[in-house]
User: What shape does this take?
Amino acid sequence: MSHAMSDEQVASELKKMTAFIRQEALEKAKEIQIKADEEFAIEKSKLVRQETSSIDSVYAKKHKQASMSQQITRSTLANKTRIKVLSQRQELLDELFEKAREGLEGYSGDKTKYEGMCKGLILEGLYALNEEKAAVRARRSDYDIVKKAIEGAKKEYREKVAKDVEVVLDEKNPQPDGSYGGVSIIGGGGKIDINNTLEERLKLLETDALPMMRTTLFGQNVNRRFYD
Assistant: This one.
């Protein structure tokens, strides 16, 4: 036969149950806190990595943009400097050739020297044509000198080639009076024109001598890889 629990025994049992429940609640709360802390740490680490990656990406992008901007600026300045230098060099060359043109104006003033030059220009044309007949064109003001030059050229041609050549002065088609002088040698029945005027010779000089003049005036181009 069971005995009824006294009030003290009931109170003691309730106290034990309360303590047990409290302990269980504390342990459960601790587990929840630990799990929450772990999840927080994981999420925090993830966010930190994302932000760090984002910052690195932004920095790398800005660094790349800054680097490209600097390269573009340097390239632009280098090109501007190069163009300016080339322009100044070309201006100097143009000035030199312009002075050479001005010097041609008075070249025919020395009659003896000019006659010898015309003779040489005529001979050059005769050798190139290698024909029995040729015509020479010159300025009207040079006709007397050129006639003498023709005779001298014919004589030297005969001596060098051992055959005669007929050379006439084409007075129907003179060189412009405003030109600097020199002659044109016509062959091939009028189809071949060897332009040995002083203007044309200066143009050839500009083309042929320009590389050498550039090297003489400005030094060797270190960036040039091929040469004629």
Q: What stands out?
A: Helices lie at 7-105, 111-129, 143-161, 198-218.
